[in-house]
Amino acid sequence: MKKLLSVLLAMTMALSFAACSGSAANSSAAAPANSTAGKAAGGDSGDMTVVGFSQVGAESDWRTANTASMKETFTEANGYKLIFDDAQQKQENQITAIRNFIQQEVDYIVLAPVTETGWDTVLKEAKDAGIPVIIVDRMIDVSDDSLFTCWVGSDFRKEGDTAVKWMQDNLKDKKELHIVHLQGTIGSSAQIGRTEGLEAGVKANPGWKLVAQQTGEFTQAKGQEVMESLLKQNDKIDVVYCENDNMAFGAIDAIEAAGKKAGKGGDITVISFDSTKAGLEATLKGKINYNVECNPLHGPRVESIIKELKAGKTPQKLAYVDETAFDANTITQAVIDARAY
Ligand code: AHR
């Protein structure tokens, strides 16, 4: 009997040891779904949130300020590992960057798209991988809105309408207005909205003549080059409508090199967008007559979206940033001193 009891005890101990080993093996296989440990990108990211940011490029002062805002927000000290990619103004580079982010299993993808169209396939890949995509600055045009989580940026059409309203109010004494138009990157929301605003203004004001419309690709060098050739081709230019500050700087250089005066009390009225610090300095000097703001400080806005998502909330699908505009007749040094970008 004693022998039988000790055999039974040994069998029970062996069985319970096997059961414990089994449960230990199972628990180590079940890592929490939202854990970043062991991710391809997060090998050394520990508990940090991994954000892949595909940036358009570095074409303008606005863009530089936007990149700085993202980098200052998504720091390791704030709990993030930021994977930054500069696409050099090329959509194919952005598509490659997004595919790399998917492969690296980032927690969030942030996309500042160069143009509106052409995103369906790659964003479907991100969706299938279960990675939320936040669009920032310019908008995208996709067949299915569930391909992105949400968007934050500017109302570019409203910016164009604001500029047109100023032209109507301030240039109404001129029977005819000969306008040349320096456009941004063709197909980008910033170009589309600001162009739509001007074209609607031209339709509504019979005296307004759109004598030329050409892209300066949002850069100072191209803005200058295009304006130089437009000045050679057109004797009569009353207004240059520049879709950003950097193209306005280039246009002003070209106007002055042609022996004309740009801006307030000059030969050619200069309209610009962005209102960067340098743009506002040119406005205070009177070289830009009217500057419509476009706010690039999106880092904290994107971070608050990520915090909402982490908390299981649903962020607003489309969030427009509040913006204003500055007139050379009323701007003060204090406005420029207070400018963060
Ligand atoms: O999308 C925002 C625009 O892009 C800014 O107006 C311009 O400066 C930038 O390059």
UniProtKB/TrEMBL annotation:
GO terms for molecular function: carbohydrate binding. It comes from the Bacteria. InterPro entries: Peripla_BP_I, SBP_2_dom. Keywords: Signal. It is found in: Cell envelope. PANTHER family: D-ALLOSE-BINDING PERIPLASMIC PROTEIN-RELATED (PTHR46847), GALACTOFURANOSE-BINDING PROTEIN YTFQ (PTHR46847:SF3). This is ABC transporter substrate-binding protein.
